[in-house]
Specification:
The protein is α/β, with parallel strands linked by helices. It has ten helices and twelve strands.
């Protein structure tokens, strides 16, 4: 479990990103991390991975303090950043020299994931396009089978078939023993994968809720006659609304909910507290 308490962090005294942030990320779930540009999504992921050190407050990942960078912590976490730097060797060479750091690495999974991603592991990273390098590293990262898999904008740079392959792989590696965090602006591309939603804004945490709870609290769909919507959104196919749920469980539309929280932050928070 990832436990964040009273987290404050800033790149400088004038650029504070978080102040007294509290957040619990439960294990065995796939969490979608959403927020507008500049609210600190990437910063939060780097803090969890130990790449940044909090100004104050605490982060605990299964009892480890991330910035201590202890072997037991590093072997259990994989961070797939938006921009990936890789050496000028083949994927095969990279996997052979790096996999020993990850005790759960599966050579069988690695071979199969390369096939799904249509990657030749003998090819040098230097000869790969950005999209190919991302697909190649994904195949390796997921084959490491770390208990924590953290991804920042993983579908950026991927073509449509590669995005479908990515979703297939993530769905395959989801288990009760693995915690996955995906930060992205491409909500529709991961909506089917996540079972918990975390939203941030410039004030901090807006919500941290299971998909099931959101479907119980809100109704997503066409406006209902006589029902005052919390938020409406015009689309090419018509008007869609977010309403307080007073009946059957609804299928959440995360993009609609995100847009609603921008205009009705306090109302959304209060409804979830009921």
């Amino acid at each position: 479990m990832i436990q964040i308490t009273n987290l404050t962090y800033g790149y400088s005294s004038r650029q504070e990103v978080f102040r007294d942030l509290g957040l619990t990320i439960t294990e065995g779930h796939t969490h979608g991390l959403f927020g507008c540009n500049g609210v600190g999504k990437t910063t939060l992921l780097k803090l969890i991975c130990g790449l940044l050190n909090p100004t104050s407050g605490n982060i605990s990942v299964d009892g480890y303090k991330p910035h201590d960078r202890k072997v037991g912590f590093l072997s259990n976490i994989m961070f797939l950043s938006e921009e990936i730097w890789l050496p000028t060797v083949s994927l095969e060479c990279y996997a052979r020299t790096t996999a020993p750091y990850y005790p759960n690495f599966s050579a069988e999974d690695f071979k199969r994931f390369c096939q799904i991603m249509e990657i030749d592991p003998r090819q040098s990273f230097r000869k790969m396009s950005m999209g190919l390098r991302k697909r190649a590293y994904m195949a390796f990262a997921l084959a490491c089978n770390t208990p924590y898999l953290i991804m920042d904008e993983p579908t950026n740079g991927l073509d449509i078939p590669s995005k479908a392959a990515f979703r297939r792989l993530v769905a395959e590696v989801q288990t009760e023993e693995r915690t996955i965090i995906i930060s992205t602006h491409q909500v529709k591309e991961i909506e089917s994968l996540i079972d918990n939603v975390i939203m941030l804004d410039e004030k901090g945490l807006i919500l941290n809720s299971p998909i099931e709870e959101l479907g119980q609290r809100f109704t997503f769909g066409r406006p209902v006659a006589g029902e005052a919507p919390i938020f409406t959104q015009q689309t090419p196919t018509g008007t869609f609304a977010l309403m307080e749920n007073r009946g059957e469980e609804s299928q959440p539309d995360i993009e609609l909910l995100f847009n609603a929280t921008i205009d009705h932050r306090d109302q959304i928070i209060n409804l979830l507290k009921k």
